[in-house]
Write a structure and sequence with these properties.
Helix content of chain A: 25-40%
Number of helices of chain A: 13
Number of strands of chain A: 12
Largest interface: A-B, 85 and 85 residues
Structural class of chain A: alpha/beta
Radius of gyration of chain A: 21 Å
Order of helices and strands of chain A: HHEHHEHEHEHEHEEEHHHEHEEEH
Oligomer: homodimer
Distance between the termini of chain A: 59 Å
Chain lengths: 362, 362
């Protein structure tokens, strides 16, 4: 009898078939819960993006543009990169998987920093590759250890910058040195889902290094700063060779037409970006102050979320907060048993979070 | 030096970086062209779906439901299948790829009928498998030849029903015999993207055979009958074992939230479905009559499109029609050098197509 599944698939975890918040609330007998668990934009979606969606509803029966022509044209202008070096995906998640699918041969491996985005590892496994996880040093990405970990079978190195879930970010000098010291036949994926939130002038985007690093891939998303997580749209920059290869594997109609229209419009929504950044800045100032007052330790962040150490442990804190109607992210599934991750919300959400946390740990 | 791409990727065709219609029109100096090339619904999207999209715009900043809970619940009710045996994808295209990714081990092969959907072959290649194409017999799927083609390394058999691009469909008896005679360790994917258009009472859906065939996968889409191609949403039915395996590989946020909301609403839009079916029926009657008048041969169809033999050849007809502002599908890329495929449009589009074709072949 033939084996049914591919061998690697048997080793993949089945994503827990969770329930929508509405169902969860019904089960717990609570109402009006708030969600600070997924680093979503508390202001909602970009209004200019929403307007563009409205204007494109009459053409939903048409297939989307397989080449995201207008969006790539706009991104090219905004970031000063050629259209042929830009790709658009069904969320940055799809682009991460596409890089693995396109480049990782069976038996090759990827290098991932400790406690990083869980999907990096899943994708590597799903394409018959392996992952090497390089532990964080003092909760920071250990670039030197990552370089030392490169072996002949290493194909891809993933780095989140700013890093999820710590919120720490790499500086221009750190990235520059890392890219210089890394063997030149290793693909580097810089996942910059949160880069727009970074306030430290020393923090740099990988975009600056594209011309000097032919195997660098820089990924961005419209999910966070533009508030479009529900639409699924991310984008990436790399050399034409890399982008051409990804396009060979990419499904032609991977990005829905409303996402393309919304993203195109969002890129002009400077007012929304400004409001978002102000809200995050003020929210963080409030949260830092309150966490200090509660003598809880946390990591100052370059993103729109915060990693907080909790005396109750991740899971217990999560469950108690849930019963208070505050949904946060327990980080035990990321291997951080004593930490929760919470994104900055609206002022009233931040305050509700703090007061619930205060009650819960009392 | 390490090989950059996976070996199989080098053999994949680079999807031609085409331009949106607007750009094409500008280049050709034409305006107001009509598109009958992609089997889209000429009535536009389901109005109930569009309303649902409008009502869900305020939550675009939230990630979509990773489990498409409400949509699967609705599909379960409508089709009388358990939720655990239903999966939703970013278009049926994604589900086709997911089946290959989950089940096709390197060196295994898929069997595909001649001139079928080009992506079946691409996906097999992209996962280091091979494809065996079984030629059509008199432009019909040759089920007996497909069964005879099964070898020990055969993992998946793909069948479109109704078939694209011929518009022919398999009957209940044909499917039943095929499933009975096929070795029981081969996965059968019945791609029913057009099944709702079928008018022949002998034509059957694979849904009837799910309980007796543990390795049967039935795929459907919201792109055609519900006019939601732009949103990217398809769905599939299979045994729980198959669905669980697909869910291990599937990206959690593969289906955007507007697509989920639109699809949920569309399933109640009986009036739109009825209007669509009437339009297609009347459009086909008109087209059959006019093609007879022009002495052009065509295949009577069970779908919303028509395969037509053209004396000029596919490519030449396509190019001349394009200059008339009528975009159709030349089937040379599907290996049918003398055929074009055209979908039924609005009455005025059908008439414009016929008159353009008459001029072009004169």
């Amino acid at each position: 009898m033939k084996r049914l599944m591919r061998k690697c698939v048997e080793n993949l975890k089945l994503y827990p078939p969770g329930k929508p918040i509405e169902e969860l609330e019904r089960e717990l007998g609570i109402r009006g819960s708030i969600k600070l668990a997924s680093n979503e934009n508390p202001l909602g979606p970009s209004p200019m993006a929403v307007r563009a969606v409205r204007e494109n509803l009459k053409n939903l029966h048409r297939y989307p543009d397989a080449n995201a022509y207008y969006l790539r044209e706009k991104l090219a202008g905004k970031f000063g990169r050629p259209m042929s070096e830009i790709i658009v995906g069904n969320g940055a998640d799809e682009l991460i998987e596409l890089v693995v699918q396109t480049f990782l041969s069976p038996g090759e491996s990827v290098i991932i920093p400790g406690h990083a985005f869980l999907l990096y590892e899943t994708f590597a496994r799903s394409f018959d590759g392996s992952s090497l996880i390089v532990p964080l040093a003092d909760l920071s990405v250990d670039l030197e250890a990552m370089i030392n970990a490169v072996a002949s079978h290493t194909k891809i190195v993933f780095i989140n910058n700013p890093q999820n879930p710590t919120g720490k970010a790499l500086t221009r000098d750190e990235i520059s040195r890392f890219l210089r010291e890394l063997p030149s036949d290793v693909i580097v994926v810089l996942d910059e889902a949160y880069i727009e939130f970074s306030t430290d002038p020393e923090v740099a985007s990988g975009l600056e290094f594209l011309d000097s690093c032919p195997l660098l891939v820089v990924l961005r998303t419209f999910s966070k700063i533009y508030g479009l997580a529900g639409l699924r749209i991310g984008y990436g920059f790399a050399s034409r060779t890399i982008i051409d290869a990804l396009n060979r594997v990419r499904q032609p109609f991977n990005v829905n037409s409303l996402a393309q229209a919304a993203a195109l419009a969002a890129l002009d929504d400077d007012e929304f970006v400004k409001k978002t950044l102000t809200l995050i800045k003020e929210g963080l100032a409030y949260l830092y102050g309150e966490l200090d007052r509660l003598s809880l330790s946390y990591i100052p962040t370059q993103a729109n979320f915060l990693l907080i150490k909790t005396p109750l442990g991740a899971r217990e804190t999560y469950e108690r907060m849930l019963r208070q109607g505050v949904i946060i992210r327990p980080m035990d599934s990321y291997g951080l048993e004593d930490y929760i991750r919470v994104n900055v919300g609206l002022p009233e959400e931040n305050s509700r979070f703090i007061h619930a946390l205060e009650r819960v740990i009392a």
